[in-house]
Specification:
The structure is a single chain. It contains no helices and five strands. The protein has about 100 residues and is an all-beta fold. The chain is globular, with a radius of gyration of 14 Å.
């Protein structure tokens, strides 16, 4: 089996229009140029990307985490992506952030 390790790295900017205001999961039946890493590489099925949204909320987020759970996801007071593993067997994976 193949293991992929992913790190979240901050890329700081003073331009609020370039700053990340949120994140979303993009799924596609074909590879999409300019979307970065396919997080489902080697697993078969859809291509899956985490995409940074910009230009939205002018308040910077303070925390960013990958939530992995074998049970139901608790949304709480955080912003989050859809399940990166949606439609697959295995744990739920959500990127979450809060202000």
């Amino acid at each position: 089996s193949r293991t992929c390790v992913v790190f979240i790295v901050a890329d700081w900017t003073y331009n609020k229009n370039d700053a990340a205001s949120g994140f979303r999961i993009v799924r596609s039946e074909k590879a999409l140029g300019g979307h970065g890493h396919d997080y489902a590489a080697g697993a078969g099925g859809d291509y899956r990307y985490i995409v940074r949204d910009t230009g939205g909320r002018p308040i910077p987020w303070k925390n960013l985490a990958l939530w992995r759970s074998s049970g139901k996801y608790y949304y709480g007071n955080k912003h989050h992506t859809d399940d990166l593993n949606k439609g697959r067997k295995g744990d739920f994976l959500h990127l979450e952030w809060w202000y």
